[in-house]
Write a structure and sequence with these properties.
The complex is a heterodimer of chains A (214) and B (463). Chain A is mainly alpha-helical and 214 residues long. With 463 residues, chain B is mainly α. In chain B, helix 8 runs antiparallel to helix 9 and helix 14 packs antiparallel against helix 17. The chains are: A mainly alpha (214), B mainly alpha (463). Chains A and B meet through helix 6 and helix 7 of A and helix 5 and helix 6 of B.
Amino acid sequence: MVSFDLNVINFSGGQRSNQVRFELIAYFGLFLIITSSMINLFLQSKRGMIICLAVQYLGVFFLVIQAWSVGLSAVKLIAGWMAATFLGATHMINESKSEENPPKTSGILFKVSTGLFILLIVFGSAGSVRTLIPVPLVFIWAGMTLICLGFLQMATSGKLLKVMIGLLTTLSGFEVMYSAVENSVLVAGLQAVVVIGIALIGAYLAILPELDRS
Amino acid sequence: MNAPILYIFIPAVTGITLFFLRKKSILVQSIGIGFSFLWGLLGFTLPIGEVITTGESALKIASSTAVLGRNLTILDSDRSVIGIIFIFSALWYVGAVLKKIGNHFIPIGLIISGLLIAAVAIEPFLYAALILAIIVLLSIVILTERGARIEAGILRYLVFQMLGVPFILLTGWVLTVAGVNPSDELVLFQAILFIILGFAFWLGIFPFHTWIPMLASEGNIIASGFIFSMLPSMTLLMLLDYINTYSWLRDSQLFFQALFVCGIIMLITGGVWAATQNNLKKLLGYAVIIETGFALIAIGLNTQAGYEYVVMALIPRLLAVLLASFAISQTNFNSSKEGQVAIEGLFFRKPWTASALLAGLFSLAGMPLLGNFPLRLQLVDQTFQLHPEAIISIAIGISGFLIGCSKISTQICRGPSASREKESRIFIFITISTIILLLCMGLFPNLLLSNLVNILTGFPFLK
């Protein structure tokens, strides 16, 4: 079990300057998470969505590294990037084909405004959530942002890639919060397997209609 | 030799091997079905933890092994569950062969069977959530058909099953905290909330139930039926394991009331939706919802009789879902208007298929003489004694499903008599055997099902 000073991310024996540096890394990770997941809401370009997913996992890495060792945190980053690669490799094959109508401005505005509203709720209710899950605020902000924006992603689109990215986003939000309370190597490994498995299934479903029936 | 290697790793490795050989259909089908039947018989007959002497040699199957620092423990009381998983998997493989989807269904089914046992055997059980997630991912491959469009049901199934995993993992953490301070009401409430939400996603408790009828109506009914029968059954056993492990959970009235209410809600939603159904496949989906609802009501009663219902109803439920799924697969029913006409006059064209369909559906409804009836009667009687107000909900659930079954029966027996169509001999044999078994279970439940109560010896702290 990882223990925290709830106000400051403390490392036994660490210098104050190291603590400040680590806090800055955590907030930078939070910035990457918020930015990438918000952009992913309205992006239609598959390449852009995959890049945002990769940046999102980089943000998750910067947060998880506050609680776990670098090696263990790297497992999450590599699994996330592998997932992005698998999804990108299959979904971007079809990008050159003639696509549906370009998105409407009203749709983009709706998603962005809903996303901002969600962010307001997340930041406003983080204190209450902390009574349930006693971890540093930055973990709750990041985790809840990913969970809620992931839900929004899944709920507002029926497209396969969007649903897969939304699911991965939601699960990564949970992983951020869970990493603060549990640092089991086996759980981390199995979670990585699940993330890669979801991406492989997403890739399989993308090419399924084009496979020969046999 | 130990039980986890025998019942988890060997089936999984066999499945992986057969997956690479899947082009050789006859080899894969014969090995897969034979292996599964054999392992089912081993599960029922081979004792675990006892020395078996054969002549001059002695063999002992150890009950646990350590994998990556965690224990996989299979007790002697789990043998019935193992036997059921493998025997029924073998029957599903036969159905897959009849529908010509056996090449990838059988290897993946074997891996899933091994992982299902691993999910029940793993200690601590929070890892079961991740194993279940892997099972769901593997099941996507058998639920989808090559060259077919991706429908919404498969995505919804994937999303809802994955969303259950975080709640169960968080439950593991909260239970650790609650164990340290069991008098903290907030922590207990939090743990109960997470458990209920996790199992709500997995079992399809309203409003997270929509994936069940969608998955049933899309894709292959054999694959859907396999998932509908195996996953909820093992998930319910995992729930019993949770209750058995934590004393404060067993002492929590709120938890059992929540389960009871969830069961009632599933009955009402399943019954109401089933009554309006003309889609045969969706009707089977709602039958699964109602069955799970009854199981939750039984657990929610927190009585010995309730827990006995959960384990004794395993085989009748699995048989009924198997029979109904096989029968639906033998029709050409699909969701289109033309496909829905496929069951009109079915009784004249394919009498065995019609008989199997009606026997399966009415057994799930709990009709007298069939497998579910005596167990359902006992459960309803016990519920009436403890919660008489719940009887109306139970009546809505059962009658709603019966209305749906009646509509299907009318369609089956309606229409001009047509020439008899050829039916597979294997299917006829399975139909006759299963109907006889269901009738025997309905007429002599204590004779055939009482041994399943031994499963509860693996949960010694349940009432």
